[in-house]
């Protein structure tokens, strides 16, 4: 209720507003509000919107250019990874006797992860996300593959180091090599018996070398082999050294290829100073020459064959 001062009555009297006047005032209010609203909108659009759109367009263009750079980087990373995968499959795995990984193994798990990208509404972002996910997945698989290669390489290195690949007596000390392996007349017993190793004739006291890494399983005296040493190389391989004047290792000791384990002698059933040398694979005697000849250079091998060709008997 509004009041107005009446000068004639000197009183404040209530103002009576008719419904018609009220409707008229409401209409005026709405008309002014609408006019101001529309006018403001037109003014806003004509003044500010074009500026915003220009900036927005520039931002969009900038973003698109940056996306292109990102895609190129992703493609480049993918190409580099592909080269690494190719090398892995075609070179490293071939050298180490491993099967190459097939493509399905390399992309395993990608499908499940792609679902996470479904919630991304912008196609450019989604595409980049999926591409990055695939790369990440391939990288994980490749990292696992390289880890496997490293483990295999360590195993092979250990195996190669354990292989009885060198001569147990140096060529400079070697005066004769008896390459007879298999059945032959025993020089002392006088009957046919297998000769399960090679005989290296060398001066008494010449050093005897472990032919591969391993651990000494036996170091003792026996009637037939005299002072003898057995070395277990692992991987099913064992070497035996007999007729030593003395051994300088003990059972359980680790030995490295080329380490002196004893000296040439004439103990046990032997007709002269020499080393009787055997190689066993899975418990079966094998010809040692098949192992160490690969480790010799041409001159050493020729010398060995020349020395070996001079003998037709064993010394046991
Ligand atoms: Zn022998």
Report the sheet with the most strands, covering strand number, pairing sense and barrel closure: 10 strands, antiparallel
In DSSP terms, counting alpha (H) and pi (I) runs of 4 or more, how many helices?
7
How many structural domains can be distinguished in the coordinates? 3
Structural class: alpha+beta
On the 0-100 scale, what is the average pLDDT?
A: 83
Q: Could you tell me how far the N terminus lies from the C terminus, measured between alpha carbons in angstroms?
A: 136 Å
**Beta-strand content:** 15-25%
Strand elements, count: 14
CATH architecture level-2 label of the largest domain: Distorted Sandwich
Unreliable spans: none
Helix content: 40-55%
Please trace the helix and strand order, writing H or E for each element: EEHHHHHEEEEEEEEEEEEHH
């Amino acid at each position: 209720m509004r009041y107005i001062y009446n000068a004639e009555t000197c009183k404040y009297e209530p103002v009576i507003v008719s419904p018609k006047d009220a409707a008229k005032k409401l209409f005026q209010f709405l008309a002014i509000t609408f006019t101001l609203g529309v006018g403001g909108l037109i003014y806003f659009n004509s003044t500010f919107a074009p500026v915003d759109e220009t900036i927005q367009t520039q931002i969009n263009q900038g973003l698109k250019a940056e996306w292109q750079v990102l895609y190129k980087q992703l493609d480049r990373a993918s190409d580099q990874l592909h080269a690494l995968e190719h090398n892995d499959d075609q070179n490293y795995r071939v050298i180490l006797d491993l099967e190459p990984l097939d493509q399905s193994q390399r992309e395993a798990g990608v499908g499940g992860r792609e679902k996470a990208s479904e919630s991304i509404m912008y196609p450019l972002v989604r595409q980049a996300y999926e591409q990055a996910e695939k790369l990440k997945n391939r990288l994980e698989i490749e990292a696992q593959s390289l880890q496997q290669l490293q483990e295999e390489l360590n195993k092979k290195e250990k195996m190669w180091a354990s292989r009885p690949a060198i001569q147990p007596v140096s060529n400079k000390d070697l005066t004769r090599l008896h390459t007879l392996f298999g059945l032959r007349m025993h020089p002392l017993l006088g009957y046919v018996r297998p000769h399960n190793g090679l005989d290296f004739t060398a001066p008494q006291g010449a050093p005897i070398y472990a032919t591969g890494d391993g651990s000494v399983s036996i170091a003792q005296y026996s009637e037939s082999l005299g002072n003898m040493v057995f070395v277990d190389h692992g991987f099913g391989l064992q070497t035996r050294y007999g007729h030593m004047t003395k051994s300088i290792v003990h059972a359980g000791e680790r030995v490295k290829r080329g380490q002196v384990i004893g000296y040439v002698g004439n103990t046990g059933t032997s007709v002269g100073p020499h080393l009787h040398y055997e190689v066993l694979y899975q418990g079966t005697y094998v010809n040692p020459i098949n192992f160490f000849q690969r480790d010799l250079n041409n001159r050493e091998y020729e010398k060995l064959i020349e020395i070996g060709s001079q003998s037709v008997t064993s010394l046991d």
